[in-house]
């Protein structure tokens, strides 16, 4: 890897929190590759950031496709600075009604994909002996009614992050996680009005966060200031978790 590469892959960044992360990182001088199932929107979002940024089609739950995309990216970018595992989905249902498909889909995108992307990236970052992995978990990791699948996946992301941090530290690679609380995106605006209002009431700061608030936390973990910080979990929730 070139010692100067600033290329960061952000998954699921065509819209929502990922797009906010991409916007903040681009403004701080990183070159962003948006990897999303929605290729058109990934390209549009990348184009809005500037010509040096790129949008690619990638289903992060497809292990072989992830390996191929990350190897190809490292080849054309002369290495990788880091990855942000942001892609995520919800398939909420009460436990007794949750189907196998709802469980499997969420575990595939919200947990297995974090493993696939981190593993593929780690091969390059280890070799370069530096790099950053940032995983987007959720305040729901502690458990949330109707989200057995999502909470299990997001708690798994934390265990995975701690392990990555221990395995990769000797190669100069850090791994940290962020737990957003309640952030304004399509995922949250789809909630029924009464549930949306109840969520707001739980936030000491009194308002929902913005995707860029999560972006600022990601930028911190990618910065030189965070070189000595690994295996940490940062809550970005307006005090939601107090
Ligand atoms: P979002 O608005 O639904 O956006 C998710 C993005 O990921 C979409 O562009 C989606 O593409 C893409 N995506 C879905 N499955 C994918 C796959 N298999 N491969 C690649 N891309 C995929 O979600 P968000 O609210 O921004 O959430 C982003 C992350 O933050 C998720 O991990 C979520 O769990 C976490 N989070 C969100 C909140 C919140 O308040 N919003 C709180 C805590 C944690 P399509 O448009 O085609 O679906």
What does it look like?
By secondary structure, the protein is α/β, with parallel strands linked by helices. It has a single domain, classed as Rossmann fold (3-Layer(aba) Sandwich), CATH 3.40.50.720. Helix content is 47%, strand content 15%. It contains 8 helices and 7 strands, in the order E-H-E-H-E-H-E-H-E-H-E-H-H-H-E. The chain has helices at 16-27, 39-49, 63-77, 100-128, 148-168, 186-189, 193-201, 211-222; strands at residues 7-11, 31-36, 54-57, 82-85, 131-136, 173-180, 233-236. A 7-stranded parallel beta sheet has the order 3-2-1-4-5-6-7, with helices on both faces. Strand 5, helix 5 (148-168) and strand 6 (173-180) form a beta-alpha-beta unit. Helix 3 runs parallel beside helix 4 (100-128) and helix 4 packs parallel to helix 5 (148-168). The radius of gyration is 17 Å and the shape is globular. It starts with 6 loop residues before the first strand and ends in a 6-residue tail after the last strand. The relative contact order is 0.15. Bound molecules: NADP nicotinamide-adenine-dinucleotide phosphate.
Question: How would you concisely characterize the structure shown here?
Answer:
With 242 residues, the chain is an alpha/beta fold. The chain is built from 8 helices and 7 strands.
